[in-house]
Amino acid sequence: SLGIEYSELLIPKEAVGLVIGKQGENIKKVNNETGCIVKFRPPGPHEDDRYRICTFHGTTSQIKKAREQISDLVEYLKQKFGLARPIPKPGQEFAEVRVSAAKAGIVIGKGGETIKQINNLSGATVCIDRSVPDGSEYRTFFVVGNHQQVEHAKYLIREKSGETCELPLGAIMALNPMLAGEAFANQPPLPPMLPMVMPQYGFDPTGGLQSPWYNPPQPTFEYSQQIPVS
Fold this sequence. Notes:
Layout lengths: L4 E8 H8 L4 H10 L2 E5 L9 E8 L1 H22 L11 E8 H8 L4 H10 L2 E4 L9 E8 L1 H15 L7 H7 L2 H8 L16 E2 L5 E2 L20
Helix pairs in contact: 2-3, 5-6, 7-8
């Protein structure tokens, strides 16, 4: 009907049951308070199984209010139950960066200072997956933001963990020109130059030692120029 719009929001799979609530009480409350029809769409065969799609049908203002309530609820659940994955907003990307467990602490930093710095420099939202069991060989960092922010954060995570940066230098300079110097510094050293091999000496036709630049004497010619008499 006229004025009815449609919107979607990705919700981490582990948060879906809590968002719906016991016998659907949470999602019913959002429907009643906003006037928006909020549902979870059945997962499709080619969709990311880490998320479920929450759908919204209503006017622009109804959808805005409902999305805000659902997002606030998920953020509350993340803080209360430790849900790790950040939720991408429309137009944002989601990425995972896996580093060795021994280097994860370096990326986080003392008191979380390093990961806060990565967030501030890149503009992305970066957090570590806390659902990984103890003793795992690798830890995963979740990254959410626009394309440039995500790529910048991925570079910073790999740089802090000591892994090789996969970005070309041009992309690094586009993200942050200050990083270009670090990229050059992290390049492997050039191989040593091979010693110069000098050409072999030979002998000139007269029997003397001939250098590689030997230039035999050229014959000279004498000639006279006749100047016409006018």
